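Fig. S4 source data, part A: sequence.
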Amino acid sequence: MVAAACRQAGLDGKGARLIRLGENALFRLEAHPVVVRIARSTEYLESARGEVAVSRWLAREGFPATRALDDVEQPVIVDGHPVTFWHLIEESDRKPTYGELGAVLRDLHSLTLPASLSLPPYPVLDRTDRRISAATGIPEDDRAGVRREVLGELDRVHGHEDIPLGRTRHRRQSTAAR
């Protein structure tokens, strides 16, 4: 799948190495400082498109964030999986301070979303529910208990408060009804 996606993007996918397998499969390319991100299904296509659009907007703003490859039309679809391509960020031994992280978050939330970029409400807890649903080897009654306990506690703690993203506000969606 990595090789096919790389061919579509005009990249050399030989020697790609899996670096993480979670909600997405991440591969580092040997021939390029690029990470290939493969989503689980086309259910994630709009999310992948949005992530690329946000990355390109942040790059135009000069904001320090992971960069999608600019010279590649993306996402590409391979065997029903959205695939995106990202510039590799080399890990550092130095960890940022809380103050540095806070400054980056302040700067991010001070940006004004361009009219061309429409961000849907961000369902903070949605991926947690999807992960519970996708887990294998769990009896259904246990899965229901995990969902009830975890999602119920997250809703209790976080409720329905608004989450400011850029200079817009997005309403957090409840998972209590799930």
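Fig. S4 source data, part B ends here. DSSP finds five helices and seven strands in the chain.
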